[in-house]
Specification:
- It is a single chain.
- The chain is mainly α.
- The protein has a single domain (2-131), classed as Helix Hairpins.
- 72% of the residues lie in helices and 4% in strands.
- A two-stranded antiparallel ribbon has the order 1-2.
- Strand 1 and strand 2 (125-127) form a beta hairpin.
- The longest helix has 41 residues, at 75-115.
- It is rod-shaped, with a radius of gyration of 25 Å.
- It starts with a helix and ends with a helix.
């Protein structure tokens, strides 16, 4: 139960940051889908048919899965795809960093709370180091 409470506290603390990251990913998927459509549609109208269809390309490229069913053939499309791949790796590292920072902060909070003791005589909070001399 202690571990479950720790995980719950962490996700509550970083929820807004994770939500912001998700919104950023959705925006980048839509923007990159639109860009690749305009780069590739003239050369491959039967593959890059519409902007909503290119969302599939964007998702598979950002996640670095790349099934190969939608592949750019223009030089500018290949360069753009390379940038999207690099951005995808960075974007998926972002939540891991946010969650890790949340765990570190929660551990610091728990450590601070554990160090605070209440004096049995005066009922004032005291630090663990002061407890010996109090």
């Amino acid at each position: 139960m202690k571990a479950a409470k720790l995980i719950t506290n962490v996700f509550r603390a970083v929820f807004n940051q994770l939500l912001l990251g998700l919104v950023l990913v959705v925006i980048l998927i839509i923007v990159s889908s639109s860009i690749i459509y305009f780069m590739e549609h003239a050369e491959q109208p039967d593959i890059f048919t519409t902007i909503p269809d290119t969302i599939w390309w964007s998702v598979t490229t950002f996640t670095t899965v790349g099934y190969g069913d939608m592949v750019p053939v223009t030089t500018i499309g290949k360069i753009f795809t390379s940038l999207v791949l690099i951005a995808g790796v960075a974007l998926f590292a972002l939540p891991a960093g946010i969650i890790t920072a949340g765990f570190l902060e929660e551990m610091r909070k728990q450590k601070r709370t554990a160090k605070k003791l209440i004096c049995p005589h005066c009922h004032k909070p005291i630090d663990a180091e002061e407890h010996v001399n109090h």
